[in-house]
Amino acid sequence: MDWMIVLTFVAQTIRISVPYTLAAVGATFSERGGVVNIALEGIMLNGAFTCALATYYTGNPWVGILAAVAGGVATALIHAVVTITFRAEQIVSGLAINLFAAGATRFLLKVIFGSSSNSGRIAGLPEWSIPVLREIPVVSTVFSSPLILTAVVLVVLSQLALFKTVFGLRLRSVGEHPEAADSLGVRVTAMRYAGVLASGALAGLGGAWLAMDQHSFTDGMSGGRGYIALAAMIVGKWNPLGAAGACLLFGAAESLQMQLQGGNVPTHFIQMIPYVATIAVLAGFIGRSVPPAADGVPYQKERQ
Amino acid sequence: MNTLHSARGKRGFFLVLTGLCVWLLLAACSLSCARKEKTDSDEARSGAAGAPFKVGLVFDVGGRGDKSFNDSAYRGLVRAKEELGVSFEYIEPGEGSDRASALRLMAKGDARVVFGIGFLFTDDITQTAKEFPDKKFACVDYTVTDAGGIPANLVALKFREEEGSFLIGAIAALKSKTGKLGFVGGMKIPLIKKFEAGYVAGATYVRPDVKVLVSYAGVTDNAFKNPSKGKELALTQYSKGADVIFHASGSTGLGVFEAARERGKLAIGVDSDQYAEAPGYILTSMIKDVDVAVLETIRAAMNGTFEGGVRTLGLKEGGINYVYDDNNKALIGEDVRAAVETLKQKIISGEIVVPST
User: Which residues contact residue B230 at a Cβ distance below 8 angstroms, ignoring those fewer than 6 apart?
Assistant: First the structure.
């Protein structure tokens, strides 16, 4: 066994999983609080765009990261207002935001950068040199990326926040039984807003990864990753750790697909690998995946 | 009653808000479109006296500013305006079904020739050409099928991409130190397969022992706009030993260039000269002169020599070429240039027949 090939594969798997993971972990906050968030795709796209825009004009990638989070939160805020305050159908709102983001980013790309293809080149984040991790060949390139390290930390923090803190307990209660939570004095609307906005921040960060990795914004660069993240969250049973695991699995399948291309197996079969893996995992190994009871149900304080 | 009333009030407010958003979007869109059309017709009015010959064009996905295919078509329009004094208008359709209505809109107006840019137009433009027999139509990269046939007022502008790719393959093979090359395609369709076939043929022609790693980005048209995927595919090929990668994958290829920068290796652009995307890392680009095709079609229509059917442009007709200029002279080198020019003449004379599948 050639260890270099294995390490290349591991490094690639991690790189591919980063945007999935950030968006999927974000989605656990939104859905645990009872709001289905398929707007992830649009949030990532907007995050990538604001990241590229801010970095381009300030020359500082850290400002870009903040801008990506802000862009993600702002987009999520639309979803929150529409679905929580106005109790609109959550899937419809999410889809509308995805379409809106695709159109708006392309429009602004043309206005600001005069191109329908890509923005100007932006600076990337500086690399971090971490003891021990920097000694591993190939994989060290992955663990020198601030965003990847941040993502790892965020996964763990999210798991703790959701299951070990008062905030997490309240958020989950609002997603399971908002009436009961409300009767105990938990502010349902505020908690749900917090969940959706947290998912916006994380998915926006996922968008920042895409822009930073490419050193530019490219039209439609989220490329369906938001939807894959949503699937990963379901496979991960609405837990940040589970979602991250599922994202790694999807990333591995995609990486395997890339490594195998060019061999004797027809491309189309190889390109089925990620999808077959998804179906196999969903049907065979994960078992029943139960969403929060009030997921997708708008909450109305008084009913007639 | 009170809650019911307030619920209705809120819903009403929501509807108004939605309406406002939709209206804002539409207003922004129509404003920008109208602005463009206005400047174009203004320019035309000042450019030529009387009622100029009018040309309509519908862009492919990506639209103007894609730094590639569509921009090349646009250059053809601009040249036609400057050299032939025509006026033009264009539509950039969004996703999906707007294409047919955009073509119809152009045909219904006073445009005498209507262009559709890209293979996606094949079915729609055939249908529209049948509906408007007195107008002329042209489609770049039209997919010719056995069924139906092409109407007499429609010209299918096709390119022999395999010929240019052959030369690109030869350059790549001669410049490669490792003897391994890469190819990143968008979606595996006959059009992209032509690039791959020509590239592999050219590389093995000058260097029989060369190995070409071939990857495709996906199975939907999203494969042409996924730079992150392109980057990972290219990184994979570089890590397997390839040192020159040719892409035919739209903006997915921007990721290939990014990988070339990161690894200090070479990449090759497609459709337009893509040197500016990663200066120093772009060995050359295979150029598809969509602008020449557009210009010549307009000229033919004005002179009354327009003919329907398939028109194929290759090295011989000057519709396909590769970049060799001040930017990449040093990268390619005089000896390789000479060898490739010899190959070019052999293809033009028919001595070498390049496979397209």
Answer: B184, B217, B247, B249, B252, B253, B254, B255, B256, B258, B259
Q: Are residues B198 and B277 in the same domain?
A: yes
Instruction: Report chain B's mean pLDDT, rounded to a whole number.
Output: 85
Does an H or E element contain B269, and which?
strand B266-271
Check B62 against A116: CB less than 8 A apart.
Answer: yes
Domain range annotation of chain A: 3-285
A105–chain B Cβ distance below 8 A for any pair: no
Residue B172 CA to residue A284 CA, distance in Å, equals: 46
Boundaries of domain holding B305: 52-159+289-319
Say which CATH number the domain at B75 has. 3.40.50.2300
Which ipTM score applies to this complex?
0.90
Q: Which helix (H) or strand (E) holds A63?
A: helix A61-80
* Residue B30 or residue B89, greater confidence: B89
Task: Specify if B21 maps to a domain.
Answer: no
> How many domains is chain B built from?
2
A217, closest residue in chain B (CA to CA): B227
Q: At what angle do helices A225-235 and A188-214 cross, to 10 degrees?
A: 130
Is the four-CA dihedral B172, B333, B68, B355 of positive or negative sign?
Answer: negative
Whether the CB-CB separation of B195 and B141 falls below 8 Å is answered with no
pLDDT level of residue B12 (50, 70, 90 thresholds): low
Tell me if B71 sits within 8 A of B276, measured CB to CB: no
Q: Is residue B33 part of a domain?
A: no
One domain for residues B170 and B234: yes
Q: How many CB pairs under 8 A join A and B?
A: 106
Give chain A's residues under pLDDT 70: 1, 286, 303-304
A-chain CB neighbours of B10 within 8 Å are 85-87
Q: Taking CB atoms and an 8 Å cutoff, what residues of chain A touch B219?
A: 268, 271
- Is A224's Cβ below 8 Å from some Cβ in B? yes
Q: What mean pLDDT is reported for chain A?
A: 91
**CA–CA min distance B38, chain A (Å):** 17
Q: Which residues of B touch A103 (CB under 8 A)?
A: 25, 94
Of B92, B188, B215, the CB nearest to A258: B215
Are A221 and B225 a contacting pair at CB < 8 A? yes
The pLDDT score that the predictor gives to residue A280 is 81
**CA dihedral of A217, A220, A224, A229, whole degrees rounded to 10:** 30
Q: Which of A85, A114, A213 sits opposite B228 (nearest CB)?
A: A213
Q: For the domain bounded by A3-285, which CATH number is listed?
A: 1.10.3470
- pLDDT for the residue numbered B17: 54
Dihedral (CA of A74, A75, A81, A84) sign? negative
